[in-house]
Design a protein that fits this description.
Helix 10 crosses helix 11 and helix 12 packs antiparallel against helix 13. This protein has 374 residues and is of the alpha+beta class. The protein has four domains: 98 residues, 2-Layer Sandwich (Alpha-Beta Plaits), CATH 3.30.70; 64 residues, MutS, DNA mismatch repair protein, domain I, CATH 3.40.1170; 56 residues, Orthogonal Bundle (DNA polymerase, domain 1), CATH 1.10.150.20; 101 residues, Dna Ligase, domain 1 (2-Layer Sandwich), CATH 3.30.1490. The two termini are 14 Å apart. It is 34% helix and 22% strand. The protein has a five-stranded mixed beta sheet. The chain contains 13 helices and twelve strands. The longest helix has 22 residues. It is found in: Cytoplasm. Its EC number is 2.7.7.7. Monomer.
Length: 374
């Protein structure tokens, strides 16, 4: 096990909670007719994309981000359901309320997953594994949904462990098991290793964590550039990143793909107005304001452009956001081709929320609780 100096007797205890097929499971929960059937959340049109797939659909190779036509081809019985993000957000809030019973150190990654640092055993459960089990049971009781969990001494291992026994399972990787666990991992399981990188690794005869660990840093830098240091550390089970309750968000945006190309100015402006409202709603919920507005346009030949404008002061209202977006759009009219996608992003964010005082009892990054087990 690798720990920072002075921390060998008290490694962090981190849980990664990941809801099982979250969007699709919510739909199956709320509509009994969908239970046991292959379900895809997303649009069924020729330009639709799968946002989430139930486990019944995954058996046919249906995955999120897959074009809907491909998903339907793989699973003719697939049932498409329109997403209900307001419902998913409400359920996510229920889940986070459960997390807060056990710790204030919560780092959300999305609506359906988060890291929790439970190094302080607030409720005297006795082990991080026991805390994860209690959280999963409470989620099921409160929401009717299942979650999986990974428990380990760092974020990298906790995230991978949460996928080991899905759905509705959990896995613990204790400090003395970390290096062996990583060594046995397929290289493609490392976070950030996509299909292209995995293919490149295979060409270099790197197939597992053990193979990665055998590589010198110079070799990794030569072939993987900026990812070299991460791969070097991860292959040794090293990850010193703390759980950050207030992740710095760089931008807030929204975009939409249309079933029919938008060509008329009136339709373009109307569509952009709706997107601006969505972005502003998200900025309000996040308690942020931004100075830079970026317009995204994707044409029907899949060519894409972005245009941005930065203001001296943060955007103060939805009307201002819409006005800047409309001005960016007007500069591109008439469009050379029909638009299949419109997007708007607010960046250069500043928080408008009051500063939160640190919670009592969690000032130390590594509280020493010798009797608190994994």
């Amino acid at each position: 096990m690798h720990q920072e100096p002075g921390d060998r007797t008290s490694p962090r205890k981190i849980i990664h909670i990941d809801m099982d097929a979250f969007f699709a499971s919510v739909e199956q929960r709320d509509n009994p007719e969908l239970r046991g059937r292959p379900v895809a959340v997303g649009g069924s049109s020729a330009r639709g994309v799968v946002a989430a797939a139930s486990y019944e659909a995954r058996q046919f190779g249906v995955r999120s981000a897959m074009p809907s036509v491909t998903a339907k081809r793989r699973c003719p019985a697939l049932v498409f359901v329109k997403p209900r993000f307001e419902v998913y957000r409400a359920v996510s809030q229920q889940i986070h309320a459960i997390f807060r019973r056990y710790t204030d150190l919560i780092e959300p990654l999305s609506l359906d997953e988060a890291y929790l640092d439970v190094s302080e055993d607030r409720l005297k459960v006795g082990s991080a594994t026991g805390i994860a089990l209690q959280i999963r049971r409470q989620i099921l009781e409160d929401t009717g949904l299942t979650a999986s969990a990974g428990i380990s001494y760092n974020k990298f291992l906790a995230k991978i462990a949460s996928d080991q026994n899905k759905p509705n399972g959990q896995c613990v990787v204790r400090p003395e098991q970390g290096e062996a666990f990583v060594a046995a991992l397929p290289a493609r399981r490392f976070y950030g290793v996509g299909p292209k990188t995995a293919e490149k690794m295979a060409g270099l005869d790197i197939h597992s964590g053990a193979d990665l660990r055998a590589c010198e840093m110079d070799f990794l830098q030569q072939h993987f550039g900026k990812s070299a240091e991460y791969l070097y550390r991860a292959s040794r089970g090293i990850d010193h990143r703390p759980v950050k309750p207030d992740r710095v968000r760089k931008s807030i945006g929204a975009e939409r793909t249309y079933s029919e190309d938008l060509e008329e100015e009136a339709k373009l402006r109307e569509a952009l107005e709706a997107i601006a409202s969505t972005v502003w709603e998200r900025a309000e919920k996040h308690g942020s304001r931004g100075r830079t507005v970026t317009l995204k346009l994707k044409f029907n030949d899949f060519r894409q452009i972005t245009r941005a404008r930065s203001l001296e002061q943060p955007v103060a209202s939805c009307n201002v956001l819409a006005e800047v977006g409309q001005a960016l759009l007007a500069a591109q009219l008439p469009l050379p081709r029909g638009a299949r996608l419109l997007g708007l992003t607010l960046s250069g964010l500043e928080s408008v929320k009051a500063e939160k005082a640190p919670a009592a009892g969690i000032a130390e990054a590594h509280p020493r609780q010798g009797q608190f087990a994994f």
